[in-house]
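From the shared-data thread, chain only:
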Amino acid sequence: MSMLTKSILPKSFLSKSMLRRGSAALALLGAAVLPPQAARAQEHKGSKNYPPLTIKQRLGPPAPQAQRTLHPRIPLLDVDGSLVIKSKKPLSLAKSCGACHDAKYIAEHSYHASLGWDEIYSQRPKDRPWDSGPGPFRRWDPLRNTTLHGLYSDPAKAHGMPPGIAEWQRRFGRYHAGGGPASKIEFNCLLCHMASPNHDERARELSAARFEASSMATLIGTGLVIRDSQGQLQWQPQQLDKQGAVAPEQLGLGRPRNENCRACHMGPGRYQDAVHFGFRAENRSAATTGTVFAAERIFDSGMNLAAKEGLATPFDVHAERLVGCADCHHSPNSPVHGAGGSGSEAAPAHLRFDARRASTGEWLLRPNHDFVKGMTSQGTIARRMAGSMRGCADCHDTEQSHPKLPHQDLHFAKLSCSACHVPQVYGAARRMTDWTLLGPEQQPLVGYRGTTGDPNEPSTLIQGYRPILLWQERGDGERKLAPHNLMASWFWTETPKAASDSPAKSSGKRSQDQAAQQPSELERPISQKTLAQALFTPEGAYRPEIIAALDGNADGKLQRKELRLDGPDKLTAVRQRLEAVGVQQPRIRAQLQPYSIAHGVQSTPFALRQCTECHGQQSRVAASLPLSEYIPGDVLPSLVSDARLVKQGKLERKPDGWLHYQAEPMPDLAYLHGAQSFSLLDRIGLGVLLLCCLLSLIHGGLRVLAQLRRRQRISS
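Structure, as tokens:
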């Protein structure tokens, strides 16, 4: 019987056969993680004697407990301001919460509501004319291949919202708090401030375009609302008092918890439990960076990680030390956290610190929900707030904690803290997303770094990867090396016949010339739906002409390695199918999107310590990062122009067909001893050295001759 099984159940409870089956099952499941309550109670203090595991931990973390709160009881009102206990209408949070809080101000001062809708580009990027602003509404998303242009629908189905917004909400509304351009969907306070909001039921209402009932559906599971046999939402009056109010404890109201943030930023599911994890597009943070913000130690994870038995470090040391999302990403006008330094939008630029504070009452009335944020390459929304969050040096005494680091000022000026404290990402991350073809499930073709298989399969071994260090613009002319992941994306675009550029020839001859063409102002990405219509029959099978063009071994089936546009005949077949469904002038475009890595911070023993990691022949600053094993349409991706990176490095095509990004040191920003060399400077230095040696020999020789002559004169 294994020690693990002994620690879970008493010996008298299990028979030998049950023990054998239980041990095998536990081995397949993997070591469980501590729930948040146990993590808070456990203080390691250098001890390696971790508490035993329990069945409760095996079953997953318990439901969040209601927090003690001073919040008064809340009368639940409908859109007309009437009590829902009388009107039976859907809940209006703008009216219910707005009785005490300025709901309109909060919704208008939240980039979670606007998602960049109010940030229209004055001039569209020349490399991406289809992007009219930041955020998912106006910027093409390489993970989902969506723009509002591809979601236009019948105006009668727009529900009074801008074109495309209603369809976007039906598909992706579960990841939006409401408000902003979605005028028919109220800004949902419960998603962040409620202990267990029902995201699934809310998404069900949104997908059915029952937008007004989405806030009400969030309450399913609290006893206040049920869904009847006809699928309609019904209030439960017995759960409310005579005034139609509900106790805040029943909703579990409180400050946003990590679980509330994970619901959108890390996808649906129990992601606080590292046994249950995924790298799909819904889990955007893990899919793009491979990082996990969790307090659990890596060797306790159920993921099949390489050599994880020696990884006695948490997924993120800040999470282990009970630092939550809201502790760093707080309201900028919070009287507790304050306006902070000059990087905050709420503080004047000429002040290093602003002592003025809003009173508690003023803040409760109008809490600014434009939360402070860090500086990332992918965070294009609310760039006005970039860098407003307190940095590492605002909490840590960097000089005292790095006594053995030589040239501290120089290293702190040129390196971000994450450059050394995120030396390794232990999860897998996307390196390429190919939207030029679709897999059998009509999803894009995805390649991951850090693993050789599908990381969503429990049996796949995940080795992790070393992030590449790139020079990042930090504002005010400051540039620092920061860890990044790079993801290349290929996709089809169409251009109306009225565009000035000439139509693409259907001969299949393609590429470097066409790839170098400047995109037309009218060029737009092709939606996933249109691409699926071109590639698949109504029954969901590949069309015969697609199979004939891609089936290399002539077995009548398309294997994963055959799904790639790496030849002119394949390119012609797909282009002709796109033209057959009405796509005008289809062509392939490609982009390279960097993703800054800010989470996954390791504890001190696992931080980067060897100087040769940067000052050596295998320097991280000059690393080569693989992107794709093939190049769709022979089109090379270009770095997006809004990534706030200093242009550096180049794309290299290896003899085996792989496409790599080769980073290059930038001597004008920093000279790395041991990693860089200048031929002219080396020649000058060698010449000076030889000249010094020669002069030393001449000088020494002359002194020897002078001494000999002196002796001769003395002897004579």
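The chain has 28 helices and 14 strands.
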